[in-house]
Design brief:
The complex is a heterodimer of chains A (300) and B (355). Chain A is 78% helix and 3% strand. Chain A is mainly α and 300 residues long. In chain A, helix 3 crosses helix 9 and helix 11 (247-268) packs across helix 12 (273-299). The longest helix of chain B is centred in the N-terminal third of the chain and has 30 residues, at 97-126. In chain B, strands 1-2 form a two-stranded antiparallel sheet. The chains are: A mainly alpha (300), B mainly alpha (355). Chain B: It is found in: Cell membrane.
């Protein structure tokens, strides 16, 4: 670990490379986490199948690439398909857990996550897949920093998607209804907002965002039926670290996690990357709890 | 809760089945052994989940810790563990009968103790978390343990360890492990039955109903939670050790820390039977296991999908569980008093929703 640290200090270009790759990945994490923050904040559902929507989106891109279509074009298709899928899931399961205690939603979506992962495993098998977009790589700093075009493009797409969603939430009628429901569902109902529809739309939008993020994942990384849970955990890390309803915080924390994960994978070895993410979750949770504890003491 | 007589009949039936079962259906010995394991898992999950109101998704971590602890103890008594695991089973090491059984006995005992110690250490960190945060945090603990073990080459890393082989014939070994699971499940059940009848059990229920009030009444809630979790971890650790020896080959992701299979099954089983009751987890585990084996036989390839669907339906549509439903329906049979116009007889699910 110390040797690797020395390498990093000796070769700043390598550190910059890790940083840049971390930012590319972090953009995707930020999208997934934003979806989670949306569902969590609006309907108080802790969606543990977040990561599995990502993987489903990835497989949509994979299928497109297999049939000879450029997987970049899969982005809008995955968005629409996952929107519909999310709506169906809402009607079948989520609608019944919205008003229940939070453990119910956690467990129900965990069950859903298992279900989705197993179905994917049956259809696609447990092999690791990737969607080849066929763009080249360009180099910076004497070849020490390799940037694949596809990563740059996916960063741009993620940014465009995030911008679109932010504008939608701010200016459209539905976006305003969603924000109103998040603030006070009862008051929103009194003022004529169909909150059931808002919940359905929010959940479907979340699935769509995850699906689009999944397309990007399959472009720059690999997908596998059981990789979903790690994305869910990452989303939880980011949202708990940033806090609900703190959009800039979520995006910043997403980038931060991407960089931190990339760095720790290099420093500790790739086999500890997942462990590092999970430990970060625990640290964030415990830190938040300490903060809360202080508040509790003051209030009483 | 139920009358002493029905209890006696149920115990007699279960013990009779436990003894006669493997003799009548020798082909199913392992399946029935797993059923006792499921009963044990669901019952010990319920100590925290049902009785104390702390829904842990990470109890499976203690299962894996126990399994690895016993493996390391069993091997380390006579060989160098690093060498043994580095060879990935290429070195055929022989354990004499005496070596094997001392190793096994020591391994099982230490597995429980080590799991309990780890549970206390983890508990000190995570018991500040409440509600869903506790669930996510404990899930994180289980996933982190699996990843750490698979990165630790001393215990074989992701490649796993092949366990010492049980001396004697295949039939004898499966019967021996069957007996261990059976005894373990019964002992755990009787222990929990006694535990829930003491003040300690009442304290756990008080924590579930309102932790702040319990604390204000002078209960040292952290201590109660730690002890309750350590009890669950102790049994889970021993169960993991037995399971590892029964399987013969242990590996971090699928065998030792199966977060997405046994880890979620134990929660689903306790919920299916009715959490917060003594018999609920037992009933749920037996039912779940039977359904699981049936889907295994008749829905090959789709069995996991079917199980996932069962879990979702169980949690979303039928969360109070079988016993919870029965208590709602016939409260008198369970010795519960119904407060007219109130909803005091509703089981754990409703109580939590009210929080």
């Amino acid at each position: 670990m110390l040797d690797n640290l020395q390498i990093l200090i000796a070769a700043p270009a390598l550190a910059a490379d890790l940083l840049i790759q971390g930012v590319f990945i972090g953009a995707i994490f930020a999208l997934v986490a934003y979806g989670l923050a949306l569902v969590w904040g609006v309907m108080n559902v802790k969606n543990l199948c977040q990561g599995d929507y990502v993987i489903v989106g990835g497989y949509i891109a994979y299928l497109m690439a297999q049939s000879g279509i450029n997987p970049i074009l899969a982005l809008p298709i995955a968005f629409v398909l996952m929107f519909m899928f999310g709506w169906v899931v809402y009607l079948a399961v989520i609608r019944r857990v919205v008003d229940r205690d939070m453990f119910t939603s956690l467990l129900a979506t965990f069950g859903l996550a298992l279900l989705i992962a197993q179905v994917l495993n049956l259809i696609f098998g447990p092999e690791v897949r990737t969607a080849e977009a066929g763009f080249g790589t360009f180099f910076m700093a004497d070849g020490l920093i390799a940037i694949q075009w596809v990563r740059l493009i996916s960063l741009g797409l993620a940014g465009a998607l995030a911008l679109g969603i932010v504008l939608f939430m701010r200016h459209s009628r539905m976006g305003r209804a969603i924000r109103a429901t998040a603030q006070d569902p009862r008051a929103a109902r009194v003022l004529g907002v169909n909150t059931d529809q808002v919940y359905a739309f929010t959940y479907a939008l979340n699935a769509a965002i995850c699906g689009a993020a999944g397309v990007l994942v399959s472009l720059i990384w690999v997908i596998q039926p059981y990789f979903g849970i790690v994305y869910s955990i990452r989303a939880f890390v980011i949202v708990t670290a940033a806090g609900l309803g703190n959009l800039p915080g979520v995006i910043l924390a997403g980038f931060g996690l991407g960089v931190a994960e990339n760095m720790s994978a290099f420093l500790l070895g790739a086999e500890f990357a997942v462990a590092a993410v999970v430990s970060m979750l625990l640290i964030v949770l415990i830190y938040r709890q300490i903060q809360l504890y202080r508040v509790r003491q003051v209030v009483r | 809760m139920t009358s002493a007589r029905t209890d006696g009949v149920i115990y007699a039936g279960l013990i009779a089945f436990g003894i006669v079962g493997p003799l009548l259906f020798p082909g199913y010995t392992n399946q029935i052994a797993i059923m006792w394991l499921m009963v044990l898992m669901a019952s010990t999950w319920d100590v925290m989940g049902g009785q104390t109101g702390y829904n842990s998704l990470g109890n499976i971590a203690f299962f894996g810790i126990g399994m690895y602890a016993s493996a390391v103890v069993q091997i380390a008594l006579f060989y160098d563990v690093g060498e043994y695991t580095a060879a990935f089973g290429a070195i055929k090491v022989e354990f004499t009968d005496a070596q094997y059984f001392t190793g096994l006995a020591l391994g099982l005992g230490l597995a429980g103790v080590i799991a309990a110690i780890v549970s206390v250490l983890v508990g000190l960190c995570v018991f500040g978390l409440r509600g869903p945060y506790f669930a996510i945090g404990t899930l994180g603990v289980a996933v982190a343990m699996a990843e750490l073990i698979s990165g630790w080459n001393y215990v074989g890393g992701g490649g796993g360890i092949s366990m010492p082989v049980f001396p004697g014939e295949a039939g004898a070994s499966s019967l021996a492990f069957y007996a261990m699971f059976f005894v373990l499940a019964i002992v755990a059940h009787l222990f929990l039955r006694w535990l829930y009848s003491t003040q300690f059990g009442l304290a756990l229920n008080a924590i579930r109903d309102d932790e702040d009030k319990a604390e204000a009444m002078g209960l040292h809630t952290l201590r109660y939670k730690l002890i309750a979790w350590a009890i669950a971890a102790f049994f889970m650790g021993i169960a993991g050790a037995v399971f590892g020896n029964m399987i013969g080959f242990i590996e971090p992701l699928e065998v030792a820390f199966p977060t997405t299979t046994f880890g979620i099954f134990m929660v689903a089983m306790a919920l299916l039977g009715g959490k917060g009751t003594l018999w609920g987890p037992v009933l749920g585990a037996i039912l779940f296991h039977v359904v699981k084996e049936l889907t295994w036989t008749y829905l090959l390839d789709w069995q996991w999908v079917a199980l996932g669907a069962i879990i979702v339906v169980n949690i979303v549509y039928f969360q109070q569980g079988i016993l919870g439903w029965a208590q709602d329906r016939w409260p008198a049979a369970f010795g519960l008093k119904v407060d007219e116009g109130g909803d005091d007889a509703t089981p754990a699910g409703a109580r939590e929703a009210a929080e």
